[in-house]
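User: Just a sanity check before I run the rest of the batch. Below are the structure tokens for the first item. I only need the designed sequence back.
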């Protein structure tokens, strides 16, 4: 009997894991949900740090910016720093997910006007700007890409 209970428990865990994975990957969505998710866009952002300021920029993201993105419905996908020259030590790459281009514009506007962001930016740049250049490119998943 105890063996059967353990087996049932393990099978339930496996089913829950598969359900979570399917939900995360968008499997089994209704046609309506699939249509609305097709409007989703990703935003690739590249920050070229001012000389010697990459660590300060990363600290600002780590300590403040990511939480503010979450507050303004901007979903972080991932953040990267290059391992090789010429970008090593002076560049941050990241991707945000947005439900749509319109949502992205509205969320960036709200983020930029957030008093907490204004304060954090001002405090982090008392010794000069942390970036020299910021690039933004909106991108869409291809039909053969895994859903993230």
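Assistant: Here's the designed sequence for the first item:
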């Amino acid at each position: 009997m105890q063996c059967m209970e353990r087996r049932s428990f393990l099978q339930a865990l496996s089913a829950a894991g598969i359900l979570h994975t399917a939900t995360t990957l968008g499997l089994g969505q209704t046609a309506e949900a699939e249509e609305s998710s097709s409007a989703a866009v990703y935003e690739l952002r590249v920050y070229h740090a001012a000389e010697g300021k990459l660590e300060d920029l990363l600290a600002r993201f780590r300590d403040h910016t990511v939480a503010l993105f979450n507050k303004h419905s901007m979903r972080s996908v991932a953040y990267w720093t290059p391992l090789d020259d010429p970008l090593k030590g002076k560049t941050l790459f990241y991707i945000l997910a947005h439900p749509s281009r319109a949502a992205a514009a509205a969320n960036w506007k709200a983020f930029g006007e957030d008093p907490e962001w204004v304060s954090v930016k001002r405090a982090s740049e008392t010794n000069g700007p942390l970036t020299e250049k910021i690039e933004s490119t909106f991108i869409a998943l291809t039909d053969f890409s895994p859903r993230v």
